[in-house]
Amino acid sequence: MERFENKVWLSTPTMHGDEIKYVKQAYETNWMSTVGENINEIEKQVCEKVGCKYAVALSCGTSALHLAVKLAGVKQGDNVFCTDMTFAATLNSVVYEKANPIFIDTEYDTWNMCPKALEKAFELYPDTKVIVVANLYGVPAKFDEICAIAKKHGAIIIEDAAESLGATHMGRQTGTFGTYNAISFNGNKIITGSSGGMLLTDGLEAANKARKWSTQSRENAPWYQHEEVGYNYRMSNVIAGVVRGQLPYLEEHIAQKKEIYFRYKEGFKDLPVTMNPYDEKIMEPNFWLSCMLIDKDAMCKQVRSDNDACYVAESGKSCPTQILEELAKYNAEGRPIWKPMHMQPIFRMNPFVTKSGNGRGTTNAYIAGGAEDVGADIFARGLCLPSDNKMTAEQQDKIIEIIKNCFR
Ligand SMILES: *Cc1c(COP(=O)(O)O)cnc(C)c1O
Known about the structure:
Strand content: 15-25%
Bound molecules: pyridoxal-5'-phosphate
CATH topology of the largest domain: Aspartate Aminotransferase, domain 2
Structural class: alpha/beta
Shape: globular
CATH architecture of the largest domain: 3-Layer(aba) Sandwich
CATH superfamily of the largest domain: Type I PLP-dependent aspartate aminotransferase-like (Major domain)
Largest sheet: 8 strands, mixed
CATH class of the largest domain: Alpha Beta
């Protein structure tokens, strides 16, 4: 097989033409700041699409998460339960506020926060009042269970829906399960503004606070009057123009990503692998990234240090390192699964709770990658596949062939 002449990417922006029209409109009317029609329009449209009352357009998903953490009242030293296997932005804002992330292990059904581990965490840290839940790769977390647990313990949920815009759980859009929710328009997300994000909430007071904090916390006065700390987090009207042009294409992008997911699923049906799972009875993901997991007994030997990986090839078996290296050889981009936060050097002292209540910071000894550690297991055996919605069927068939060859 030949190398791909044009690189096949993991996930890149897909523009449609209207984006430049709205950007030009901002330019020609000179609304080149953080105020303007594009911002007003996308805030309205996102509320209608997602089914929330208020949307505050911000510079990125991370700033939305930061304001969500502040709105939730998280203070220095507070414990906050966080999704463990996710992009660090999910919980970095907890650290900005000098609070203490406690990592909740992952479950195999959706690769999101494990409700059983969350329940155990409340036994160990009963005073915890905030839970940050991410929807990995566009698959909703088990919100039916997680919301019930949160309610029972009087905790509030911050939903990180950065990867899952347009996905639903029991017919309800992600980005509405938390009291405060974040979405992202980063360049590789399902739709993009090149950057940008939003805070979503049903609380008018919260939305107003977020607006004020995001524009340097000016008080209502003729001069710059300040009573609390502020941030420069508002979205630019130029960026909002790109988002405005993209929003009508959200469903089209989801349909394309869904086709990619099922083409992989069909292509891999004779391999000892599975796709990133979801509960089709109650969930419809946005299929942002297609991922695969290699069966335990089909894994060749793979060793990862902090910064490097190697493997020993074996007939009939493979591993993520081998597949990623093969894809790269053919000019295609895959990616390892988000390395769980409890395995990150920066969080080596933070508690980590598994479904039977074991883990670091519990009374039972923590065994890294032990039988209990679901996140470490998925990280070891899983990978993200090229999922760009501009990938052709022919290109994808070739990717499938490259991966099949790894198992020969
Ligand atoms: C992309 C992403 C974010 C952050 O969004 P930005 O807009 O890049 O700041 C947060 N959480 C998750 C899970 C993400 O994938």
